[in-house]
UniProtKB/TrEMBL annotation:
The keyword Transferase appears for this protein: yes
Superkingdom classification of source: Bacteria
Source organism phylogeny: Bacteria, Pseudomonadati, Pseudomonadota, Alphaproteobacteria, Hyphomicrobiales
An MF annotation (GO) of this entry: hydrolase activity
Pfam family, one: Abhydrolase_6
Domain AB hydrolase-1 intervals: 40-221
InterPro entries: AB_hydrolase_1, AB_hydrolase_fold
Listed name of the protein: Putative hydrolase or acyltransferase of alpha/beta superfamily
UniProt keywords, alphabetically: Acyltransferase, Hydrolase, Transferase
Length: 233
């Protein structure tokens, strides 16, 4: 491999901060640079605004963008804007368009997020697979996420539809999915397969927060994908 070292840019889930993803960074080998982006906490930015803001701040390529959950549609939009820099797109526990969950958009203003106990949230997102450290970091991240930003991002996710964008992306695509994901079951993988029959699919035995609870197999899948893009020649 000659020229600039390829970079992996990871965009986090709905909490928008790097802390929960440090374990993945520690598992990645140093053949590729890796960086976690934070999402701006601006309630005036929709997906289009977020993607434009982030696209303007991308480092020099070549790049692979990885979007976890909420950030899946975001990396699709960024990749569409910057095909000159972005050579691969990864969707981790994510979706092109939410289906049945979209009915919840009208309930968001009435949900007292601070009153929801942590235990059922943890069960939904990671089952019994998360370590105490991961659960503690997750609890901390959720407490720091203001209800205003949480509801704003949840509404964006419920409304967004990037199916057409994904179909038209010139980049290679990797989809990493937890086989026991209670939030985004396998039908969302089928969405990706229908839109992009060429997409690589990597199932991992885990729940929605597979990036946090299974960093080693996630890192391996990312490295194999990047090798196929940059080291095959």
């Amino acid at each position: 491999m000659s020229g600039p070292k390829p970079k992996l840019l990871l965009f986090p889930g709905i909490d928008g901060v790097p802390e929960l993803r440090r374990g993945l960074m520690e598992c990645l080998e140093d053949r590729f640079e890796a960086q976690i982006f934070s999402l701006p906490e601006d309630p005036d930015l929709d997906y289009e605004g977020l993607s434009q803001w982030l696209a303007e701040r991308l480092p020099e390529g070549p790049l692979v963008l990885a979007g976890e959950s909420f950030s899946g549609p975001l990396v699709a939009m960024i990749a569409e804007k910057r095909p000159d820099k972005v050579k691969g797109v990864v969707f981790i526990a994510s979706f092109p368009k939410l289906g049945l969950l979209r009915a919840a958009v009208h309930l968001l203003p009435f949900i007292p997020l601070r009153a929801i106990p942590f235990a059922p949230i943890s069960w939904l997102l990671m089952g019994q697979t998360g370590s105490e450290d991961i659960r503690r970091e997750m609890h901390k991240a959720l407490k720091l996420l203001t209800p205003k930003i949480a509801k704003h991002r949840a509404k964006l996710a419920l409304d967004v539809d990037v199916r057409q964008i994904i179909t038209g992306l010139p980049q290679a695509i990797l989809v990493i999915h937890g086989t026991r994901d209670r939030l985004l079951p396998y039908r969302y993988v089928r969405q990706f397969q229908e839109l992009r029959p060429d997409a690589q699919i990597v199932p991992i035995d885990g729940y929605h927060m597979i990036l946090e609870t299974h960093p080693k197999p996630i890192a391996k899948a990312l490295e194999v994908f990047m090798e196929s893009l940059f080291l095959s020649s």
